Amino acid sequence: RPNPAPFDPKWGGPAGKPCAHNEVVMHAVRPFAPLEVLNTRCCSRRHPAPGNEGFDGCLEFLRARCRAKRRATTVWDSEAFYCVGCDGGVDALPKRELLGWSQARLEVFLPALR
User: Fold this and answer.
1) Which of 25, 44, 88, 100 is the most exposed place for a label (fewest CB within 10 A)?
2) Could you tell me the pLDDT band of residue 2, with boundaries at 50, 70 and 90?
3) How far is the first Cα of the chain from the last one, in angstroms, to the nearest whole number?
4) How far apart are CA 3 and CA 15, in angstroms?
5) How many angstroms separate the CA atoms of 5 and 104, rounded?
6) What is the pLDDT of residues 83-98, one digit of tens each?
């Protein structure tokens, strides 16, 4: 359930984005293109944006869009790589787990995430 009154009214009030991040806008401009969220987390119910506690965040929005269109997408943020399946399921790979991987494995794996 989206937040009916986002934290900052300048983001559109009741018709605005579910939070102050740009994943929703980026998805509207380039649907199902890989998203890279720099220097922050993709907000969600589990990790809400300030003032958005208890409401859906960008990850829930992307899950709903993937279910509705039966397409998958990926999101990279400061903490993890997320794959949102066409059924709305989310798999997360924390970036810190990649630190133990060999360069050869990373060279094959990382381009596949896009």
Assistant:
1) 100
2) low
3) 29
4) 10
5) 47
6) 999 999 999 999 899 8
